[in-house]
Each structure stands twice: as C-alpha cells, then as structure tokens.
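ingest -> fold -> write
write: protein_1
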Amino acid sequence: MQKPTFWGIPVAPWWRYPTDSRRLPVTTGEAAMLHTTRRTNTAKVRLPALTVQTLGAFRCSHGSTEITQTQWRSQRACELFLLLLTSDGYSVSREYASDQLWPDHLGDAAANNLRVVLHRMRSALEPSGQLQTVVHATHHTISLTLPSGSTVDSDEFRHAIAAARRSPDGRTALPNLRRACDVYNGYYLANLPLAEWAIPLRAKYAADYAAASTRLGRILLTLNAHTELVERMWRALDIDPSIEEAHEILMQSYAATGNHDLVKRAAPTTPALLAHTLRDAHTMVQRRIYQQVLSS
C-alpha cells in the first residue's frame, strides 16, 4: 500500500490523527504548566475564609493573615464592617449606616463620608487579585457576602445561647452552654472605642454570658463534674468578677469536695461585691456555707 504524501512529503494516514483536541499527547512539562495554571486561576477566584472575633479584642483575618489597622485605614471603615455584621442578613440601608456612623452630620456630608469609608472597607476585605466580591453596594443598601467557611464569634455565641434556651433539660442544653461559654472571651469589642449603637450589644452579650456560665455551673454541680465546674467558674470570674453566682457555685463545689480552704478563697472578699450581694437570695446560701467552714 502506497503511503500518503503531501507535495511529495510522506505524512501519516488521516485515520491516525485524533479527532478530539483533548486527546493530543501532552508532555510532562506541559502537564505541569496546565496544572499550575489551573491551580493559580482557582486561587484567584476564591477568597480565604474570614475569621472575625468580636467577643474580647476585635480581630479579623483572611485565613491566617490578619487585616491590620493600616489596611482598614480608618476606624470608621472597621465600624461599618461591624455594623453590617450585627444587622439582619449583613445588610443595612445607606441612610441607616450614615445615621449610625455620623449622627451629627446631615445630607451630602454624611453621604460623601460613607462613600469614602465604603471604599476603604472594600479595599481591606477584598485583596487585590481576588475576583470574589465581599462588599455589595447599591444606591440604597450596603451588604456583605462572606467567603465560604467564614466564622463570626458573636453569631456563634447568639446561636448557642438561643439553642440552650430552647432546651429546658440541663443535659440537652449542656453542649450549647459549653459552646457559648467557650466562644465568649470578654466584653464585646473590648479593645475599640465603643460607638453608641454597640453599647446595648456589649451589655446584652455580657448578661447572656453570665446567665449561660452560671446555668452551666449549676448543671455541672448536679453532675458532680467538679473539675470542669471549677475551671469554668474561675474563667467566668476572670472575665467578669461581678458574676456573684459564680462565687456561690464555687463555694458549693469546694464544700462538697471537702476543700474548706478553697471555699474561703472562692467567697467574695471585696466590700462592694459583698454589699451588692446582700440584696441577693444567693447570699444566704453563700453565708451559710461560709459559716460552716469557719466553724469547722
């Protein structure tokens, strides 16, 4: 059989050519190049998850990289971000944002300030080279779409508190109470100047933590889980020394285990705290335990 030629040059038969370009042979170097390109393109499309800590010192990180104060460029940019996180659906109207950030400004002045702050917030949350959009703005609203896998500690805290309240039984509430107490690391935005809109949130979160931690302590007391109880109650008092019921629970736990010296340590010693608890029903329990220890 005569081999096919093209202008006298031998060529391979037509049936030996692949009809699908995807079947063309690829060298090892080309394969590595394609893999690198594919991996690079994926990295450009996806943003790292955001980790936002608001209970205690405020921190916000893209993956393992913290967004610095220099990247925020202004306190207002950070405040706008936090305001969005506390709103339903992470969305607010422009008018509401302007009123909260600049209550003393009117009309165009507040609107111009908002445009500048919005740009700074977007620059901090959307690093250059990333194609995913976190900040969405229309003529009327501003909203956030956090990258997949992002976490906001105040959201986790609120959800755990709500789930625990729906569980009247102590054992079923235990996992959510533990989760809420683990997430809470201190007063809301403890390291930032507190805006007026954030003051009620700080008070609410602190009250919710006090209630959750003492309920958890009571449950652990009934379960005789004294080691975990002592650790959690001292942590609660480190965060907020005014949680009087935590003192009482510690005293009862130490008394139940025969640690009389530690009962004295757990008793509130500050005159202001003692005066405050005189109006409390729990004080009678504290005083009775304390008197028993002193008499022994």
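write: protein_2
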Amino acid sequence: MMFEEMVVKILKERKFDGALQTELVEITGASKSRISEILTKLEKEGRIARKKETGKNYRVWLREYSESRIKVGILRATEYVKLISAGDCEFIVYSNALELTRDLALGRIEFAASPIVTQVMLGITMKSFKITGIVAENGSGVVFGDKTNGVFATTEMSAMEMNLRAIRNRLGVREFKYCDSAECLISSLESVNGSAIWEPYFTIAERDKIPFSEMAGDFPCCSLAVNLSFLKESEDDVERFIRNSRKAVSDYEKASKVLGFDEDVVKKTVKSYKFNPDYSVEEIGRIIGKSGFEISKKSLESVFIEI
C-alpha cells in the first residue's frame, strides 16, 4: 500500500479524533518529510484539515471530520436530497441511525437527519439535541423475501420498525430480525418473509413489494435535529441552514456524489417523498403510538424546538 493510501485509511479509521502528524510518521514508517509532502498535497486537494496543537505538531483530519466545518450526519437514502442541496456543509454518510444520532448527542456532528422515532427516543433520554422539523414523509416499504416464515428484517428503533409494528397483524409478522445496514436487509431476503427498507433500495429491488403508505397511510420518516451546544454558540448558522434546506432546489448531481447512487436513480426515487411536511406534536405522537411506542405529549414537546 502506498503511503498516501495508508494516511487516508488511518484518518478514515480515526474519524473525529484525527491523528497527530507524528503518529502518521510512526504508523506508516514513512519519513517526516514524506508525510509532510503527502499532507500538503491532500490539503491542497481539499481532502484534509490540519490544526496546530503542541510545538510544531499538527492534528490532521479528513475534511468531513474536521472541527472547522459544519458537519451534517445523514443515512444513505434519497430522502436527504434537499438537505444535501442546502449549503456548504460536510455531509457524513452513516450506515446506522443509532450511531448517527449518538454522534449528534455527543457533539461530534452539528446536525443529524435520521428516523424520527430514533431522534425522539434518544432525545428524551440524552437531552443534548433538539428536533427542528420533519425532513420528509413516506419513501419506504416492505420487499418480500423467499420465505413465508413470518420473520421480517428491519433496522432497530427506526421508521422501518415503527411501520412494521403498526401493521404486523396485517402482514403476519411473527418475529423481527434486526439489521444494522441496508446491505444486511437486502442479503436477508433469502431467509426472511420480507425486509422493511427505504429508498432507493426499495425501488431498486426487483421483487414483490408494497409501500408502507399503502398499508399504514402517510408517515414522517425522518427529522432534522441540532446539537444544543452548537445551537447556543451559532444560532445564526443554524437558522441559515434550516432556512436554506426548506427552500433548496434539488441538486441531483451533488446528491448523487454524496450518496453514491446513480443520478437517474436519485431523480426517480426522490418522487416517493414529500419534503418538509407539517406535523403537529400530537400527530407525531399518534403515529409513533400505533407501533406500540407510547410517549407522553410532555416528553414529545421536550425534544422539539421551533427555529
């Protein structure tokens, strides 16, 4: 492996912690001058950020994880096209909603767009972020598998699980298989009755399928939340990003690059969503309640903020 590839790999693994420049020398076995050349090149390409720490030492991050950028965590789903189109932020794509929302709670990212049920549950318990609004509604469903065993795959504490629980009697759900990624949901189709999955995976799957909206009605799939410490420090930046996201024109090319899907796929599947819908706290409570997650109005109100 070339030294530059090694450096990038190390920084990907270190994520928000980054690495000291001296550490990169020690780990790679390259000379100080060679590491300096590599970092200068990566910095000019806009791929890394450096910050002076002690003496002549620098801490280095991949740009998306650096302290100097507003970081927005999202999942690999086309419901986030409007957010991606909203402004000059670093978008970090997660495979797992729980990890994404946890990083928001810990202040590693400034914003997170993830399933509303995930944000409500963690927001009530962790109290370090607030939900600013609904990003989109609908955009997911059940793709049927090879078995008729009553086992349905889903991601945990997600809109997928929420909807499956709401219609479990209609589908004959006997047991849940929990996955931590879309790839797991897709590979599980050989051994389960069905997988609850979001766009664009739902449309791409060449199997029998049915949207949740046809079985359970319209539902909020995801919400946008902001870390409270960032809100207190940078209220103007928060207001600007939220305002821009609500009026953004979809930039399919940018969304395609961030999400790693073909641009035509993004254009096609984004039609499954309604963006920036209005839901009252009472409506959200009723929808979540259908799945068996009972949350008081007071608790729900505690995690929302109007900006």
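write: annotation protein_2
The two ends are 48 Å apart (CA to CA).
The mean pLDDT is 93.
pipeline exit 0
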